[in-house]
Design brief:
Layout lengths: L2 E8 L5 E8 L6 E4 L10 H6 L5 E6 L15 H14 L5 E5 L1 H12 L5 E4 L11 H9 L3 H12 L4 H9 L1 H10 L3 H10 L13 E6 L8 H11 L4 E5 L6 H4 L1 H13 L2
Parallel strand pairs: 3-4, 3-5, 5-6, 6-7, 7-8
Antiparallel strand pairs: 1-2, 2-4
Helix pairs in contact: 2-3, 4-5, 4-8, 5-7
Length: 266
Amino acid sequence: MEQTIQKKLPVGDHSWVTADVYGDPDAPGLVILPGAMSDAHAWRHVATAIGAWPSVTVVNRRGRTPSGPLTGSYSLRAEVEDLGVVLDEFSGTRALFGWSYGGLIALLAADARPLPQVIAYEPVIRPFGRHALPDLKAAHEAADWDATVEIVNRRIAGLGAAHVEALRADRRAWAALRRLSRPAHAELAALNAAPPPHALARRAARVDLIIGRHNHGTAPYGTSFDDVRQLIPRAEVHVLPGQGHMAHLQGPAELGRLLDQLVTTR
């Protein structure tokens, strides 16, 4: 399906979020919440690959253009409240899907309100990436976005130097990563500052957790996934073959098909 409209929604602290709607904007459907180092634009190929829902809404969280700033009182709770504004606007949402940090936000939202279905792809939870916070803070204070991108990829995601240099060689992709890295320190700090939950998604009728085959049982994403899974013992787990954390970029059609299956097999 194709994008039809973009909505701008005011949230707390004089900020705002935008939402890109694909398909019928008046029909109930799926809401997608990207995580850190990502935006709504990066999820367009997944949105267009989905066919089982009559509409797909991709949220552009605060801190990334054209949404508003993080603001000084930014926190994980603010993210959950922002998502609540989106869900109020799209009150017919049948399923909420979150990726990485967005997956944690989605699962927390399902503690705050009843939802028919929550799907999370490799959600992360504290103490994820805590060891990198001092270096990220220093890079942020120096506005050194090249260093921030490298810290996220090397120190947090655990990627090799060759992978990072390949990213750097693509000037357009590197420029996008530099732009998306600006909220990285605040987001990781907020994730690790939030009180650890004793359970997640308690008000969701159904919970599905997805992990890429490449990350199954391995740090950092697979081990954080296991930590989340322990908090939702009733969740159904799905493994996406041939993929890692960046399935929305490396296998959007495959991810879209899996999301379609999760609604059509209900």
